[in-house]
Amino acid sequence: MRLLGAVLAGGRSSRFGSDKALAMLDGRSLLDHAAAALGRHVEAIVVCGRQVDGMIGLADRPAADMGPLGGLNAALHHAAAQGFDAVLTTGCDVPVYPDGLAEALVGDGAAILKGQQLAGFWPVGLASELDAHLAEENNRSIHGWLERIGARIVERPEFVLPNINRPEDLERLKI
After folding, report:
1. Strand partners for 27
2. Is this model's pTM higher than 0.85 or not?
3. Using H for helix, E for strand and C for coil, what is the string for 49-102?
4. Using 50, 70 and 90 to split pLDDT, how confident is the model at 107?
5. What is the structure's pLDDT at 14?
6. C-beta neighbour count of 57 within 10 angstroms
7. Which tens digits make up the pLDDT trace of 29-77?
8. What pLDDT sits at residue 22?
9. How does DSSP classify residue 172?
10. What is the DSSP letter of 123?
11. Which uninterrupted H or E stretch holds 25?
């Protein structure tokens, strides 16, 4: 199975107070950490929602400010056009992607890690369905999308991913 990795990086970082993707951890940006961590489990990496030197950047689809689903939609369409079977996603503020997580998520249909909905597995066949979902009147929440497609919720307590919402969360983080 050909897997594309997508780092969802188009958010506003409103609770963080500055661009979270560019926040530094151990001398590297959170975005760089996220891309490197996910990159060990996929054939190629894209960054959704921004352009970054040295990486393939995808504009959110169909437009900016659609939340993580705009980035996921861009990744699904890019993956389909490039011959990938599915997309593994992570957030730009998740600097780790533990061994075994990809294997736990890959399976029949879409899946997310319980408690971390941006850590997901998305077959490319969902691209047209996500186009339709984003064209409708809804709040564009990832929870609504998960319900619509009947995504699996993978419950694996050994996979604890950091939740960085505020600068103090980053200060406490040790990786």
Report:
1. none
2. yes
3. CCCCCCCEEECCCCCCCCCHHHHHHHHHHHHHHCCCCEEEEEECCCCCCCCCHH
4. very high
5. 63
6. 17
7. 999 999 999 999 999 999 999 999 999 999 999 998 888 999 999 999 9
8. 85
9. H
10. E
11. strand 24-25
Which residues make Cβ contacts (< 8 Å) with residue 38, sequence separation at least 6?
5, 7, 45, 88, 90, 97
Cα→Cα distances 50→21, 26, 83, 136, 174, Å: 10, 22, 23, 24, 26
User: In this structure, what token pair is assigned to residue 102?
Assistant: 């990809």
User: How many Å apart are CA 166 and CA 163, to the nearest integer?
Assistant: 9
Torsion angle of alpha carbons 100, 102, 108, 111, nearest 10°? 110
Query: Which amino acid makes up residue 111?
Result: A
**79-115: burial string, b at 16+ Cβ within 10 Å, e else:** bbeeebebbbbbbbbbbbbbeebbebbbeeebbbbee
Q: Which residues contact 115 (CB under 8 A, 6 or more apart)?
A: 161
Residue whose token pair is 């941006």: 118
How far apart CA 102 and CA 92 sit, in angstroms, is 17
